[in-house]
Automatic annotation (TrEMBL):
<protein>
    <submittedName>
        <fullName>Uncharacterized protein</fullName>
    </submittedName>
</protein>
């Protein structure tokens, strides 16, 4: 991948989660304070929507 200009960035996932945290908060999820009984399917769906919104915002 490096020969094609693709580089790994340490911490990129954490940075991305910080960027989408406000979008997840609108959905009712606070990643810093998730209850033990969090519905994982609902969280995954919210993550997908937040990622889609974030990607759309980047290209507008």
């Amino acid at each position: 991948m490096a020969e094609h200009g693709v580089a790994r960035r340490s911490g990129a996932g954490t940075e991305h989660l910080r960027e989408i945290a406000p979008l997840l908060a609108v959905e009712g999820f606070d990643l810093d304070n998730l209850p033990e009984d969090t519905d994982v399917d609902a969280l995954n769906a919210a993550l997908a929507r937040a990622n889609e919104r974030r990607n759309t915002e980047q290209f507008e």
